[in-house]
Amino acid sequence: MKGGKVLVVDDDRSLRQFLSIMLKRVGYDVRVAASGRDGLTAMARDPADVVLTDLTMEGIDGMGVLRGVRENWPHTEVVMITAHGTTENAVAAMKQGAYDYICKPFNTDELKLVLQKVFAQRAIRVENTNLKKLLKDRFGYGSIVGRAHSMLAVYDLMDRVKDTPISVLVTGESGTGKELVARALHFEGDRRDRPFRSINCGAIPENLIESELFGYRKGAFTGAQKDHDGLFMSADGGTLFLDEIGEMPLSTQVKVLRALQERRIRPVGSSEEVNVNVRLIAATNRDLEAEIRQGRFREDLYYRLNVVTIALPALRERIGDIPILIQHFLEKYGREFGRPDLKVSDEAVRYLTAHGWPGNVRELENALQRGVALARGDEIGPEALPPQITGGVQVAGGLPTVVDSDGLDLEATLERYERILIESALDASDGVKTEAARLLRITFRSLRYRLQKIGLEEPPTLG
User: Fold this and answer.
1) What are the distances in angstroms from CA 330 to CA 315, 316, 325, 463?
2) Helix/strand/coil percentages in the chain, nearest 5
3) Is 406 helix (H, G, I), strand (E, B) or coil?
4) Domain membership flag for residue 236
5) Quick one: 229 exposed, middle or buried, by C-beta within 10 A (0-12, 13-18, 19+)?
6) How far apart are CA 370 and CA 281, in angstroms?
7) Which helix (H) or strand (E) holds 368?
8) CATH number where 447 lies
9) Average pLDDT across the chain, whole number
10) What is the per-residue pLDDT across 407-457, written as a single tens digit (0 to 9) for each?
11) Separation between Cα atoms, residue 365 and residue 333, nearest integer Å
């Protein structure tokens, strides 16, 4: 790959000049630095694709450069330059993440070959990343399904944090798929081969949650007949998912905070601490800032957990994903129940599209599971759907057509479906408003007016 960025870090002025001239001649974009400190500063200004660094330098040496690059720019490769007699140090550097090493005096063809290999591997990695992004843009991420713009933003954020050890807080209403996000972060990330453990903090009695998390030693309490590793220890090297973290007792929150800060835990009944290496992902459907104000959640733990927040949209906010989700669950339960050729009738689809989905994706999944189980013939009709979806309202084209004794708020109903159609058109046009206006058969100016009216676009400011 020609045109890639190479940073040469060496305290030998003549060697820096030689490498700069030679590598520029073969097409690389080359910068030089006279010390390890200058090299890391240059990386901070404009990261290179490859760092070519001398191993032995005053101050920050090649190993220091390697550590700094691996920590801050993990996608940059490092190639060591070493003198004969210090190859053991170069091999040690490779064990810590260096791509390769070359010995002084080196053959320029050897260096060119090493760089060609580096950039060839980078090209493959970029191609794979682009392919994965294309698949995610079209279908979803891991077990998460959807291609609404709000979901694409979620996938992008997940991609950026999945290989890091930082804590993640997943927020969203019940049924939006918070555990799916936690599992995707683990199994799509670099801890995929290590354990994934989860616990619902609201489902464990207060007097048991501490021993479930931190384990206990034999005799710690009545019934503790043998040592038990808790979830922190069994997830060592992997991921621990704390679902409904807002339900955790304050007394336990203190100990989780210490585990995050110190990376050490103390099992119940033990006088010794144990080191743990766990990536923590927490989820909640509560407003934790409000819980803090009410004294029900620790502020210091909140900021420890909330390094990155992934906010999942409600299903009603990504109505265009409903057809994709219907097909996904239809295929899933069709296979499970031995009915792979089953379809959903147009009338049933209209009911499913018109429903408000207070239970979000989980409610939709349950509805399709029921539909597959109860369908007569080869089609799921409205009669196979849950009554809360079809009861009391007739649907045509996704719009209610019956006004019952409780009446109907016409303006609110029309505004709701105007929003649904506009959001669907924006999703279909990948957010290009001129194309969305064409799909809706209205002018661009009319679309802008409607977007401002329903709060999807700020009105222009005057002055």
Assistant:
1) 17, 20, 8, 54
2) 50, 15, 35
3) coil
4) yes
5) middle
6) 32
7) helix 360-374
8) 1.10.10
9) 86
10) 666 777 777 778 778 877 887 777 888 888 888 889 988 998 888 887 777
11) 9
Clarify whether residues 69 and 192 are in a common domain. Answer: no
Same-domain check for residues 87 and 232: no
Looking at the chain, the number of H-run helices and the number of E-run strands are: 19, 18
216 and 81 within one domain: no
Domain membership of residue 324 (yes or no) is yes
CA–CA separation, 337 and 339 (whole Å): 6
- 307 and 321 belong to one structural domain: no
Label residue 118 by pLDDT band (50, 70, 90): confident
255, 285, 313 — which closes off a domain? 313
Looking at the structure, tell me whether residues 304 and 358 fall in a common domain: no
d(C-alpha 332, C-alpha 313), whole Å = 23
Q: Mind giving me the DSSP string for 208-236? A: HHHHHHH-B-TTSSTT--S-B--HHHHTT
DSSP string over 312-324 = PPPGGG-GGGHHH
Give dist(CA 227, CA 225) in Å, integer: 7
Domain membership of residue 134 (yes or no) is no
Any idea what DSSP says for residue 405? T
How buried is residue 383: exposed, middle or buried, by Cβ count under 10 Å (0-12/13-18/19+)? middle
**Cβ-based neighbours of 434, under 8 Å, separated by 6 or more:** 444
Q: Are 34 and 65 members of one domain?
A: yes
- Which residue is it, tokens 């954020």? 157
Contacts of 441 (CB under 8 A, 6+ apart): none
Nearest Cα to 308, choosing from 214, 192, 182?
Answer: 182
Per the structure, the count of domains in the chain is 4
CATH number for the domain spanning 394: value is 1.10.8.60
Specify the 3-state DSSP secondary structure of 134: helix
Range of the domain at 92: 5-129
Tokens of 217: 């030693």
